From TrEMBL:
Keywords: NAD, Oxidoreductase. This is UDP-glucose 6-dehydrogenase. Residues 317-418 form the UDP-glucose/GDP-mannose dehydrogenase C-terminal domain. It comes from Thalassobaculum litoreum DSM 18839. Gene3D superfamilies: Cytochrome c1, transmembrane anchor, C-terminal, NAD(P)-binding Rossmann-like Domain. The keyword NAD applies. Pathway: Nucleotide-sugar biosynthesis; UDP-alpha-D-glucuronate biosynthesis; UDP-alpha-D-glucuronate from UDP-alpha-D-glucose: step 1/1. Pfam families: UDPG_MGDP_dh, UDPG_MGDP_dh_C, UDPG_MGDP_dh_N.
Length: 453
């Protein structure tokens, strides 16, 4: 079977390389010619563990090809995946599907025979229907089926997530299209992983519902963390206590600087806005979006508080710039808000990230980069852990204590061993675990409790 993938970003490149590794003949198209040239030369332009090896292996065995011209990959394809970006379009939060439409318009006149067009891009509910109309008018003689095949991989573990997903969702209206898609995922289904064949709207909604649910879980635990700080208590233990309930589950309960990345923020906004266009209010997810936005405003204050409320003479070391560990992606990373604010308020800001510094250099101004963590920490008054890179957890407490000027760490990922650090004279401010200082007691103000008093 011949497969074409349009877009060689985090999703398209991983999907293309993994399908090629399953043995299919895959051609990836990208309009960015420099990317295509780099990929042909064996250079993978994004950081994603394991991807370089698969791209190298499948290019060498002749299963994977890269082109920039549509006519070189569309006419003979059995399945065409669209995996281009769908960022937020406007203030209302709706998704910009112009790249999906542009790719569809470009490929339509080149179609020959029976072709499945599968959207891997995350697209608003109803996009499949819209593409149906587009292809009926732009490729009236072709036999085309539009399928929704949402992708659930995470950056940083994208290859593993693609090859060993929890499930595959195929939203198809035509049986022949569903069978073609199923054949592509046979190597996954043969390992007992569920492949759900549903209608297209169900598949489109499932993608947004999954991301919105996970994002809401994070927004929820972050507010529990705020309560722990005020009332005493430790959000990590609360997460354990509730997460051991199998109905809740222990994943996505890490309190932190708020959810970021290229998906949760934009997909929650798009879920709310596309539902509203259909007359349905998503009050729960709207609240999660607002809670997440509000959260970042407090983070800088937390750093200032660690320096007695004034950063003007402080040297701040920011450890981690990517939106999470395992990626070089800065999209909607908490660092995009934090770093400029710290540059504005502090005497000096130094930053470090194990893989995202090349991207960061093009993004931030007024920041000095430490090539090593030690260099970044040298003479710092406060270190802010923004990304959960495991190497930060391994930092030698003696080195930390000996390198910094004032030994304060604001650990926005709750990942440092505070007891050991504090034993070495480094104080750690975490999330959701401030010791209770005259913690206020919440009194019942209404209901039976009050009546009994
Ligand atoms: N990043 C993730 O972890 C992830 C996971 C699941 C789903 N998704 C969804 O998948 C889609 C792609 O996300 P991404 O992070 O891979 O995007 P990306 O920005 O990393 O990559 C998109 C690629 O498409 C190319 N492109 C854009 N328009 C094109 C066109 N008309 N023709 C050919 N190439 C074109 C760009 O040059 C770029 O290389 C989005 O809808 C996203 O929501 C992303
Ligand atoms: O307990 C947690 C888990 C995550 N996060 C944050 O949530 C964001 C997203 O993390 P994660 O989901 O691991 O990364 P993504 O690569 O953005 O993956 C999400 O978005 C993808 C794109 O749609 C989906 O395919 C994945 O299933 C979905 O997990 C990041 O800012 C994390 O730091 C937390 O704060 N606490």
């Amino acid at each position: 079977m011949k497969v074409t993938v349009i877009g060689t970003g985090y999703v398209g490149l991983v999907a293309g390389a993994c399908f090629a590794d399953f043995g299919f003949d895959v051609t990836c198209i990208d309009k960015d010619e420099s990317k295509v040239a780099a990929l042909r030369a064996g250079t993978v332009p994004i950081y994603e563990p394991g991807l370089t090896e698969i791209v190298g292996r499948t290019q060498t065995n002749g299963n994977l090809h890269f082109v920039s011209a549509y006519q070189d990959a569309i006419p003979n394809a059995d399945v065409i995946f669209i995996a281009v970006g769908t960022p937020t379009k406007d203030e209302g939060g709706s998704a910009d599907i112009s790249a999906v439409i542009a790719a569809s318009e470009e490929l339509a006149p080149l179609l020959r025979g029976c072709t499945v067009i599968a959207t891997k891009s995350t697209v608003p509910i109803g996009t499949g229907q819209r593409l149906d109309a587009l292809f009926r008018s732009a490729a009236p003689d072709a036999d085309v089926a539009i399928v929704s095949n949402p992708e659930f991989l995470r950056e940083g573990s994208a290859v593993r997530d693609f090859v060993e997903p929890d499930r595959v969702v195929i939203g198809a209206e035509a049986d022949w299209a569903a069978s073609t898609m199923r054949a592509l995922y046979r190597p996954i289904e043969d390992r007992g992983i569920p492949v759900l064949v549903v209608d297209r709207a169900t598949a489109e909604i499932s993608k947004y519902a999954a991301n919105s649910f996970l994002a809401t879980k994070i927004a929820f635990i972050n507010e529990v963390a705020d309560l722990c700080e005020q009332a005493g208590g430790d959000v990590r233990s609360v997460a354990d206590a509730i997460g051991l309930d199998t109905r809740i589950g222990n994943q996505f309960l890490k309190a932190g600087p708020g959810f970021g990345g290229s998906c949760f923020p934009k997909d929650t906004r798009a879920f709310v806005s596309s539902s509203e266009r259909l007359g349905i209010r998503q009050r729960v997810v709207s609240a999660a979006v607002h809670a997440n936005e509000a959260r970042k405003l407090h983070l800088v204050q937390r750093v200032a508080d660690a320096c007695d409320g004034d950063l003007s003479n402080a040297r701040v070391a920011v450890l981690g710039l990517a939106f999470k560990a395992g990626t070089d992606d800065l999209r909607e990373s908490p660092s995009l808000f934090m770093v400029p604010e710290l540059v504005r308020l502090a005497d000096e800001v130094r930053a470090h990230d194990p893989v995202a510094m090349p991207v960061a250099r093009d993004t931030f101004t007024g920041v000095h980069y430490g090539e090593t963590v030690d260099e970044c920490l040298d003479g710092a008054d406060v270190a802010v852990i923004l990304t959960d890179w495991p190497e930060y957890r391994e930092l030698d407490p003696k080195m930390l204590a000996g390198t910094m000027r004032r030994n304060v760490i604001v650990d926005l990922r709750n990942m440092m061993d505070a007891d050991t650090l504090e034993a070495h004279g480094v104080s750690v401010v975490g999330i959701g675990r401030r010791e209770p200082v005259d913690a206020p007691v919440a009194h019942e103000t209404s209901g039976l409790g009050q009546a009994a008093e």
